[in-house]
């Protein structure tokens, strides 16, 4: 069953525009306390065209080693994700998986990101075009493949552009929500 997940949390509608991400059935990274990139914390808005806002994304710490990402579509539907940071080929990536009781089993997607001046975040999901399907259950093999192809433009789907709307320096979730299991 394909899970249509978005970058840091649910990245729903923008994912449909960007393509299908490669899904790993095994985690590629483990959480490392103190490894969070605090520049990702905050409320982000995706733009699908010049000046047109799309989904909103909230990125806060889940704990001291994982991110909590909530993606809210324009219609108010929210999806929630956990993410772990890792470095592959000298570039920052996030391993993302959806937090939902409705999805059987876990799958993980990889997204690399770059931060630009002016509160801009570019995210590129590793697409399903070039990674071999049989690596979906081989964490070491998939990491090696991504590292060997980190500079191949065919590895990723197109850029997803986000604009920072407010910083999340407090790390608090909205409405008193906790970062634990739902």
What is the level-2 CATH architecture name?
Beta Barrel
Rg: 15 Å
Strand content: 35-45%
Helix content range of the residues, please? Answer: under 10%
Secondary structure class reads: mainly beta
Using the coordinates above, name the CATH class: Mainly Beta
Largest sheet composition: 8 strands, antiparallel, barrel
Put simply, the count of helices is 2
Per the principal axes of the C-alpha atoms, what is the gross shape?
A: globular
- The whole-number mean of residue pLDDT values reads 81
Distance between the termini: 22 Å
Question: What name does CATH use for the topology?
Answer: Lipocalin
For the record, the count of structural domains works out to 1
Give a structural overview:
The chain has 182 residues and is mainly beta. It has one domain: Lipocalin (Beta Barrel), CATH 2.40.128. 9% of the residues lie in helices and 36% in strands. The protein has an 8-stranded antiparallel barrel. The longest helix has 10 residues. The N terminus and C terminus are likely disordered.
Provide a compact summary of the structure.
The protein has 182 residues and is mainly beta. It has helices at 12-18, 139-148, and strands spanning 42-49, 52-61, 67-72, 78-88, 91-98, 109-116, 120-125, 160-167. The protein is 9% helix and 36% strand.
Task: List the SSEs and their pairings.
Layout: H1 12-18, E1 42-49, E2 52-61, E3 67-72, E4 78-88, E5 91-98, E6 109-116, E7 120-125, H2 139-148, E8 160-167
Antiparallel strand pairs: 1-2, 1-8, 2-3, 3-4, 4-5, 5-6, 6-7, 7-8
